[in-house]
């Protein structure tokens, strides 16, 4: 009975062979990140245990006062996989690149898991600043996911007119579109919309929307354009606080889960995070030229 039913929605979910290394890189990245966080939480939970760990139990790597962070291992894996990919660049096949990509994903996960430590040059793994590592991982996963789905940040050089029409006018048109796209991305970033700018490099309409909409209140654009326009700054603050509330709540919950303390953030925690994130930009320093 059910054998005669066919469901065809016109969707091709097959991954092209050329994207298989990237897919396995993302899988190894996610698995390594989750396993690393689990091991670190286990070590932290048993830090006060005086019983010597058994040979199979995870423990910190180091000798005496020297502690080897797992970012060091990640850097080594990234370097090894990078050299391997360069070596295979001409004659390598998909299986070889897939193995190298898996190693690269593992190394990248170990490095980004301690991105906050590298950024601040101090061990802030479990502090508020340590959440920067989680943000870095989110960004990496988003970019890899878009690439796997076939989005290309340089797609304006891959359109038919660039390949089929080699006249000066056609090439100039494509280059002009590329420069316009980059200009929109710069405006969006100056307005403080990092995620819109990041994803917009793959999906251009998001850049147009981000460039037109009001700036975030703490961004350079607001500092240049809104400090003498209190109504616009107030509108930016109100909009930011309203739209950021569910995002902050979800972000805090996910960060708690990844950090090993899963619970839903209460209103006080959300408000405190909003107070840290939502604030007007300071006025430009005296003597500086404001943007037009």
UniProtKB/TrEMBL annotation:
Keyword Transcription carried by entry: no
Superkingdom to which the source organism belongs: Bacteria
UniProt feature coiled coil, ranges: none
TM region positions: 21-43, 68-90, 97-121, 136-156, 168-189, 195-215
Keyword Transcription regulation: no
Record key words, sorted: Membrane, Transmembrane, Transmembrane helix
Protein name per Swiss-Prot or TrEMBL: Integral membrane protein
Protein species of origin: Mycolicibacterium hodleri
